[in-house]
């Protein structure tokens, strides 16, 4: 916990001027507020003299009291502004670092971590941390200053009664400490379950059409209800402990207040000479100070619960920040003037150490060649693409680009040499033109429209309400085929030296596919292209076909040569046209 708090403070370090101003304003406001009981005591003494009320003294005391209260309010307001700057600046930097960290994480981490849980760490966890900083620091500091300042004033008024207050204080502190220890585990479990619930929610909402298609609603509700119930139980325990802390300390503080009132009253009437002389006004002031002294213990107990919740969320955030990221390769060689020669030499790879996938794969692609990769699901086709782009690192062997080991090149420069159209479409919130120009934001409108025409997307774009300036998103009502056309136009605009088409036309009707294939033929001229396709009729014209099964290249050659062999490829091809 100390380490986590230290890291939070390290993020707050750039805002130390606001921290100092917060301390100064809160200190000034609290010390002024501590003067209020003095004026209350004066007012009481001015009004309780036998047969006489000193209105002049009351008037003067009231004016001074109003001035002190107003000044204290101004200082506390300024302190609140500064703590806002401190807290929001800190969590803004933390969220920015977390977002940047996700961009540097290997794809394997993103693949194996539930996306809902990652979103929970970036948004609600950091918001809770922000609230904990806002509520926690200001109240904690104010409470400590109030306790110390009140003791100073009480000691100046009556040392013996002050000792009674101090001797009874450990009861309140002991109660708060026990509750804090119990609540810490509950808050940690609550933070973890909150992430689990976010992950499950994201999974069920993202696959809602699958949930409904398989009539999975009742079972999905059961899963959600169970996790939600666990979260509710953890939240109930955390809230219970936090709720118990305040009444318990209030009870102990009530005992302290009663003791001070009883002893002070007896002293004021002379029943306890050892207490010393006290006026009624002194007693009123002392009781006010005793209330001020005990009140921070109630607040601090609540603040500790908020801080524990914030620290639990911060630990989850720092877990991501501490995760191993891709090594920095900004100083590595830059890929430039690429012709497009690709060679895999005895490449081995597995997602899990005990489950081999790609084993001793070797192949060559000359510049401008069209390489088709075919095979049954799970044979490693898409994995080859992941390795070419270094989304995953190979376990052994080499991948050479124009004779250069790709591991010696920077990832960014390597990936800029490839254009990729995936089976899954991705449209972000923005205009049609912005979506097409995603990989080339400086593109002109003429270039964007030319790419759209080449992808056969220009026609439906012009029919949109605002044409290329129409705002779109994943939920804007575009069909899957239209989204795919935009993705194809996006890659046609960047015009890279190498292409990867992973089931790029799977969401498009046959007539449109034939038109796009003609566009692809033009696009692939002079470019090394890797084509993954289940419809084998689309790759008959490929220069080279790799037939994969169980992580191995089983056969390779042209369509005609593979058909002549009568092997696995021929069986696959004939199966698609059976009957």
Notes on the protein architecture:
Helices cover 63% and strands 10% of the residues. It is of the alpha/beta class. It has two domains: 285 residues, Up-down Bundle (ABC transporter transmembrane region fold); 235 residues, Rossmann fold (3-Layer(aba) Sandwich), CATH 3.40.50.300. A hairpin with an 8-residue loop joins strand 1 and strand 2. The mean pLDDT is 82.
List the helices and strands and how they pair.
Blueprint: H1 2-12, H2 16-34, H3 36-47, H4 55-104, H5 107-112, H6 115-122, H7 124-157, H8 159-206, H9 208-213, H10 217-268, H11 280-321, E1 342-349, E2 358-365, E3 370-374, H12 381-388, E4 396-401, E5 404-405, H13 411-415, E6 418-421, E7 430-431, H14 432-436, H15 445-454, H16 458-462, E8 471-472, H17 480-494, E9 498-502, H18 510-523, E10 528-532, E11 544-549, E12 552-557, H19 559-565, H20 568-576
Parallel strand pairs: 3-10, 3-11, 6-9, 9-10
Antiparallel strand pairs: 1-2, 1-4, 4-5, 7-8, 11-12
Helix pairs in contact: 2-4, 2-7, 3-4, 3-11, 4-7, 6-8, 7-8, 7-11, 8-10, 8-11, 10-11, 15-17
Strand percentage lies at 5-15%
Q: Quickly give the structural class.
A: alpha/beta
Q: Report the uncertain regions.
A: none
Mean pLDDT: 82
Shape: elongated
CATH fold description of the largest domain: ABC transporter transmembrane region fold
Helix count? Answer: 20
CATH class membership of the largest domain: Mainly Alpha
Number of strands: 12
Major pleated sheet: 6 strands, mixed
Helicity range of the residues?
55-70%
First-last Cα distance: 69 Å
Total count of domains: 2
The CATH homologous superfamily of the largest domain is called ABC transporter type 1, transmembrane domain
Rg result? 36 Å
Please list the strands of the largest sheet in the order they lie side by side.
6-9-10-3-11-12
CATH architectural designation of the largest domain: Up-down Bundle
